[in-house]
Amino acid sequence: MKNLIMTVLAVAPIALFAQEEFTLDGKIGGTSTNAKIFIQYRDNGQGIVDSVNVKDGAFKYQGSVSEPVQAVLVLSNNGATMSALRESEERPPVNAVFLSKGVIQFKGSDFTTAVSSGNGINEDFSKYKAESAAINKEFEALDTKFQAATPEQQQDELFIASLRKQAEGIYEKQNTINEDFVTNNPESYVSLSILNEVVSPENITSFARPAYDKLAAGLKSTTLGKNLGEKIASMGKLAVGAIAPDFTLPDTSGNDIALSSLRGKYVLLDFWASWCAPCRHENPNVVAAFNKFKDKNFTVLGVSLDKPDDKAKWIEAIASDQLEQWAHVSDLQYWNSPVVELYSIRGIPQNYLIDPEGKIVGSNLRGAELEEKLGEILNKN
Fold this sequence. Notes:
Number of helices: 13
CATH superfamily of the largest domain: Glutaredoxin
Strand content: 15-25%
CATH topology of the largest domain: Glutaredoxin
Strand order of the largest sheet: 13-12-11-14-15
Structural class: alpha+beta
Number of strands: 15
CATH class of the largest domain: Alpha Beta
Order of helices and strands: HEEEEEHEEEHHHHHHHEEEHEHEHEEH
Shape: globular
Number of domains: 3
CATH architecture of the largest domain: 3-Layer(aba) Sandwich
């Protein structure tokens, strides 16, 4: 019998013994008698949505995860379903905790300001959220300003540009908070989670890779840590100074165009799609930049992530947004296009500025920042 037990243990999945059992013990104010809380997170690559009823402001949720994971908590104060909440024009109250080993306390006078405690990860997370609280209020104020604007203002380029400039300033403050927290807390799982969220080709050399190298070995050995290491290695190929990965895709007429065929010019590699509202809003800025610098050895290559069977919409958008002045390519494979993985595209619009030798000299350049970067480089020539 002993040998049989040892044999079973030997072949059992290791994850079976690595589960982190947790209890989320909540007490919040301002809830109704029908309130429930939806809990959303991912574990072992699987998306999980669960719920728990709230009674007299108290709730308890128990479970296990393979390793610490951030969960989003959504309050349905009237007991509405998740589908109903998604369709509602009003945003439901949202908060977050880390599901991890132990008893997690989630308490507050109201749901959105409730804080988590009870284990090291959630203590760290509450500290980070406290440091970011002022930034969140600035974003909320900016959103309120946009919502209060007239329809005419919301379509006004100068008004939108002003809001975007303010948003960029707020993002810079948040980036400083993120970088300081990660740098000062190299043994915290929260730092690993933050770094995974903010890593990008723009900060690989200046922040992400050095910060990752300084993380505790135990953090880098987790699934998230290993995935982040791979992500950093992949994005490192897209850092400033790296040679832009080559690819070939068909243009609107079905003729293949290789990125490398544009060597000898500065090229803005612009990822967008006809269905992407932020992309369409950014297109006038790309047109303005092209018209200003087209005689200075500069061009654009548009790469669309349009959906299969949407070629007509793609071509129509090119014409409507007056983008015909430069080449456009797409395999119409949506997010399944190989270029998505090749260029680590996680959202659009996204772009890379490439020099005549094929080296990346900038990325994610939008609005005034795009013209400033092009002016800085091309006016020297």
